[in-house]
Design a protein that fits this description.
10 helices, 2 domains, 8% strand, PCRA, domain 4, 4-stranded parallel sheet, alpha/beta
Length: 249
């Protein structure tokens, strides 16, 4: 058990470090969902399916297990045109690079064109699951550290898209902007949980929620902070014994 005064900002850090040690952990305030590598990769892919002329999402996908491009290959592609966007560089690089890289570029662009066509008639959740199947990324995520959690996050993205399709808004473009608004408004969803609070895990919780509970080992963490004296800066202070205090200008 790890006890914290507040779990909102610190708990995800402890949770991630414990996960890195391959230890099961449960936290009421889980790590940020949209910041996980598997969701970033999939959202980048959805962005370039909608509009491939976006350098950062495009290179993100190309460097991932989906594109399988090396850094040296990305440099060769960029040298095809140092000024234009990276998608145009891909088109130009096909004419000048060696056959192995040329075939890799053609296969990547072919897949991208195929998904762009399919998004016109497939439901969004169906498109996402087809991408999982076409690329093998769902299985790949399961082989990464904390693979079960990453696969649960990918299923969560699929379910989120399915729910979104049942609402009034439709289409890939609107879904991408909906997810971006979640990030900008701090409305991020917690990462999927594959274990519960009653399992044999390291639990992370606030002191307030731990009242009445007992654990064999407890660590009281993050106690080095100063007392919060923000309330003393108010113009009017109320105290049940000392009375009222106010600023006089």
């Amino acid at each position: 058990m790890i006890l914290l005064r507040s779990t909102s900002n610190v708990a995800p850090i402890y949770e991630q470090e414990i996960l890195n040690l391959q230890m099961p952990v449960f936290s009421d305030s889980s790590q940020e969902y949209l910041d996980s590598i598997e969701i970033q990769t999939m959202m980048s892919l959805l962005k370039i399916i909608d509009n491939p002329i976006q350098d950062i999402p495009l290179v993100t996908v190309m460097r991932s297990s989906i594109g399988k491009f090396t850094d040296d290959e990305l440099i060769q592609i960029r040298l095809a045109d140092k000024q234009d966007n990276f998608y145009t560089c891909l088109q130009k690089a096909k004419l000048s690079v060696e056959n192995d890289l040329k075939n890799k570029i053609e296969n990547f662009l072919k897949s991208l064109d195929q998904w762009r066509e399919e998004q016109e008639y497939l439901a969004l959740d169906e498109l996402i699951w087809k991408i999982y199947s076409d690329t093998g990324y769902y299985n790949y995520a399961g082989l990464m550290p904390n693979g079960l959690l990453r696969q649960a996050n990918l299923r969560m993205l699929f379910e989120r898209a399915k729910q979104y399709e049942t609402a009034s808004f439709k289409g890939l473009y609107n879904f991408i902007h909906f997810m971006e608004k979640l990030r900008l408004s701090s409305g991020d969803m917690g990462a999927a949980k594959i274990i519960g609070e009653n399992d044999n895990v390291v639990r992370i919780m606030s002191i307030h929620k731990s009242k009445g509970l007992e654990f064999p080992v407890v660590f009281l963490a993050s106690t080095g902070k100063q007392f919060n004296l923000m309330d003393l800066n108010q113009n009017i202070l109320l105290h049940q014994e000392l009375g009222i205090r106010c600023e006089i200008y």
